[in-house]
Amino acid sequence: ASAAACAALAGAMATLPAALLAERRNVPVVLSTVLLNLVAASAVTWLVRGPLRDPSGDYPQSRALLDSVRLDPLFPGMRVTSAVLVAATLALAVHLLLSRTRPGLALRAVGESPLAARAAGIRDGRVRLAAFAGSGALAGLGGGLEVLAVTGRLYDPFSAGVGFAGIAAALLGGMNPAGALAASFGLAALGAGSSAVQRDAGVPASIATVVTALAVLALLAARARKEPS
What we know:
By secondary structure, the chain is mainly alpha-helical. It has 2 domains: 2-160, no CATH class; 161-229, no CATH class. It contains 10 helices and no strands. The chain has helices spanning 2-14, 16-24, 29-49, 82-100, 102-112, 114-119, 124-151, 162-172, 177-201, 207-226. The longest helix has 28 residues, at 124-151.
């Protein structure tokens, strides 16, 4: 629990530069976060190739976590751990927060129309900072659970493609936390199935990436046709 909490705290703190750039310099959030992702990835590379590197191995990775720290499988013979339940619970909690609470209403109002939210007395700057911190905490927790439940150590590259898969899940889920949860399970099943097909039939596993990209493009095209010109 303490390791997961530290991961969430680190994620929240990592959003501070992007939040300050957005609030004080009006830097586009997408630009700042993408560039800061590169900084974070470079920092991980430096850590696992330097101070945190496992001296007993040739591959750039940290020492393995103790078994007492890692999350145990929920069922014998399977790799499913409580991390799946934590992720699902958090997704549903965010859905309820946005749809059933006053802070969620304020967050949606600031996201859709900052000027109207400000006119209604909502402190939009504070709401945006809370959104940055909350999203960063969730991202940090996700990375922590990946280490605690799946990899057991930090290595380079650590999370290649995970962020883009999250964007795809959000788009396919209709920009809704509950929908993104369902889409995430679908993408996970697609990825696992593609690996099995590659192993058994020799079909490249990258076909899953192609299918995901085509699904996202089809969804965006359908939405564009529905929007008035």
